[in-house]
Amino acid sequence: MLRTRFAPSPTGDLHVGSAWTALASWEMARRSGGVLVVRIEDIDPPRVVKGATRSILDDLRWLGLAWDEGPDVGGSCAPYIQSVRAPLYESVLDGLAARGLTYPCDCSRAEIARVASAPHAGEELVYPGTCRDADPAREMKRAPALRLRVPPGSVGFEDGVMGHFAHDVLRAVGDFVLRRGDGVFAYQLAVTVDDAAMGITDVVRGADLLSSTPRQILLARMLGAAAPRYWHVPLVVATDGTRLAKRTPGGTIKQLREAGLSAEEIVRTLREGLATNGTWRKEPWPIPAAWCRIPSPR
Would you please indicate which residues are annotated as catalytic (active-site) residues? Predict the structure, then answer.
């Protein structure tokens, strides 16, 4: 059975772009007779906004995008809030460490930037492997992050929207972080472990996460798990083509609700933007000009 998920981070009100991917996930589950899981990704405490989880869930319900498993309805894969799933992540890290697949890294961002390959615009710094062969029992300069020993070789997949995509992860980003020095689990670890544990078969999300997918596929393979199928939909942008910000007029479902738009109108507009004649859109979708004329929040 198809199992897909919508996994928002509670950093503010439900973004129109997030509602777009939620709608795509919901429709995929409903058309196939599958299951939609809602999972709250709140593993980075400083970014979490109080009350945002409730606000996001309220907006999803108002839009008519009901889910089958989640933090408020339960399910066989509970808990559905990442901050409560820390013991599972620790167990996975212990297993990787026992196989010699991780190592501590006490490099600072500045130190990495000084020696890393200079990226092109929009690319990440490539970690140069400074600590890969260092003595793990050495005195650390600072609380160390935990990195994955990435093997060489290309990792590719067929995206349901964007087509074939591949990266040599070692060359593209290097040994990537699984847990930060402050103890926060990395997105790459948490999302991979949770998708596997929850039996997610299909992931619909924004195209800005396309380049990180080979890392998750690689990690899933190292954990002996099957990676899901991926569908990276284009980003929702402002009418001038710029990325929507939290304060962009018409950029959140709350703003549209308060301006008097109906849930049916919003969903219909988002659905029309997602696909044309049954074909997934591949280019960024600008929100309607009328939405941009809605007063921005104070």
Answer: 246
